[in-house]
Amino acid sequence: MKNDNIKHAAAAAAFLQDREQARWHDSAIWWVRQKRDAQAKQLPEWEQLRALAQQIKAHTLSRLDEYLEQFQRNAEANGVTVHWAADAAEHNRIVHGILAAAGVKKLVKSKSMLTEECGLNPYLEQRGIAVIDTDLGERIVQLRHEPPSHIVMPAIHLKKEHISELFHKELGTEAGNNDPTYLTHAARANLREHFLSAGAGLTGVNFAIAETGGVVVCTNEGNADLGTALPAIHIASMGLEKIVPRLEHLGVFTRLLARSAIGSPITTYTSHFQQARPGGQMHIVIVDNGRSDILGSDDFYQSLRCIRCGACMNTCPVYRRSTGHSYSYIIPGPIGSTLGPSRDIKKHGSMAFACTTCGSCSNVCPVKINLHEQLILQRKRAFDAGTLKAAKKMGLLAMRFLTRHPSLMDAGGKLMRKVVPIVPQALTQHSAWSRPGRELPQMPAQSFKEMWQARKENKQ
Amino acid sequence: MNVALFIPCFVNELYPHVAMATAELLEGYGLNVDYPLAQSCCGQPLSNNGDSQGACDAARRFTGVFKDYDYIVSPSGSCTAYVKHHYPWYIADDADFQAMQPRVYEIVEFLQDVLKVDRLPKPVYFPHPVSIHQSCHGLRELGHAAPSELMIPYHSRLERILQLVDGVDVRLPERRDECCGFGGTFSVDEPEVSVAMGEDRVAQHEATGAEYIVGADPSCLMHMGGIIRHHGKAIRPLHIVEILTGRGGAA
């Protein structure tokens, strides 16, 4: 579980203490952004695909109730048990209920940000059920007892040396052996035992198709397939916004998803789950957990179009220089900085300020969410909820006043221009502007207004 | 044609020569240029910190000051983008704003789209390598260039207008349009991230071998300028209007 008291500015400053590690993090993730660009460039219809994806999702959200009911009917006709969870607690109770009824003691999970959101792992562990994350990155952060730092690349904040050390301790690999292939094989051998001994497999859902009642899971490691093929019980947990109306719509999203996420034309596995295998069970848990509230918001409903590709994180210059662990909500980066504050503005309001409003996220988003604008709109909610620091609020109210009184603003500006040059540097070097290594601008003798008025008098 | 100068509050105080170059450039094309003295801040810092009441008041005030001019022109892409594209959050229904909105221009846009200039008022010879800084709001909200994220044909207003300058050697930094890290109050809310971004950006501009970083947004140039001076680097930030008026390098 994530410590939701994290304040981005302080956590990011701490991360930046090690500039070398921070530069590596920035470059590693920028490389993924470049791979995305290279793939997107190969499709002449890229921008049309984005527009189409946006429209399909917008349409679906406008009739979400109808499509969800259609999905349920078709899934049930396939013999799948469909459950509805209003919130995280209900989701966890349902999953536990299914496992307890079948006497399951071990659950293998493929990557699911929803179960992170719901805090499923600790819930089940407290009730005596072992949970094994089987996505390699997820497994690494699980063994480290930390949350994922990225929604697609959960362990992107770690170097192979960190993994080697961890696996030596947890899986008994050779000390100091940093070879990625060796380490991956060790994880794979360890995970195989868990796949074989688990009583149930849980997957997330990338897309749920209303027309067929089937769900689609996109992975690169095949772990979702092993986790559903070996144990007899498959539980698929999905947020209620994962619906697409028809199977023919799926191609629009699968073409965008992997290209946007990791710069690959497609994920290695795009697995369709339609019904339980003979003698097995398949359950789908449809989770609301605050999504209906977002759907009802004029400013933020667009965030429900998100297909969790993570491209906004890869392009975000702030994310790349602060890691996902600097954000209080389980989903970091631009999309997390609107979803988190939507969930709880008091807890996650500071995330909305971890943004220069550069707008790159809105441009890479495959479903064209107006991300950078949403972050500014979340700041309105933070201001109204009274979560701004007192000094900042005072500053804004002073600015508000000066904006209405230009002569006072001029007087203030003049004072600044006269005083700053004679203030000893010792007084300014600890300011937030100067502290990290940035000089104040040189102060000109005259403002433009003064120059303009003098010029006008000279002309007359 | 009556053109009003919209000079952002911090440019008025800190970069008066940029404002003056903007005025002279427009006058050089024979325009009647006015600087409405009642103008103050456009309200972007208020909006960016969630103060919708303050932002709304500032938007109404701005509209009252500027609505009667034929054109409103500014040497800041960010402030222009804010007025054009974010005032509707606060005063979408205001008829005066609706009538004014299409007449608000950033200076390079104005020269290219309204005046359609194919020469500078006075010939300019600027025999220096310059690295183009695409500022985010000019780029992604005004469409100053094709953003690297979008798969659309390449274009760049700054590169195009620099074709009117003799001798200039135009270069592009690696990561051609990454943010410099200023972000208004972000620069003091998250100073460490802001400076880390700025240092990376300055280094990328330096790596082109350019003597100047040229942009159309004084705020980004101020931020990078502060980092450049802190480290005593040789590269200099320069606003595009300073080159176009032949004052480049003088200030």
Automatic annotation (TrEMBL), chain A:
One matching Pfam family is LUD_dom
Question: Domain of life of the organism in this record?
Answer: Bacteria
What keywords does the record list, in alphabetical order?
A: 4Fe-4S, Electron transport, Iron, Iron-sulfur, Metal-binding, Repeat, Transport
Q: Which residues form the 4Fe-4S ferredoxin-type domain?
A: 296-326, 346-374
Record keyword Transport present: yes
PANTHER family per the UniProt record, alphabetical: LACTATE UTILIZATION PROTEIN B
This chain's protein is named: 4Fe-4S ferredoxin
Give the organism, scientific name: Vogesella fluminis
TrEMBL record, chain B:
Report what the protein is called: Glycolate oxidase
Cysteine-rich domain boundaries: 3-82, 130-224
Question: Organism's domain of life?
Answer: Bacteria
Q: Name one Pfam family in it.
A: CCG
Kindly indicate where the leader peptide sits in this chain.
none
Q: Which InterPro entries match?
A: Cys_rich_dom
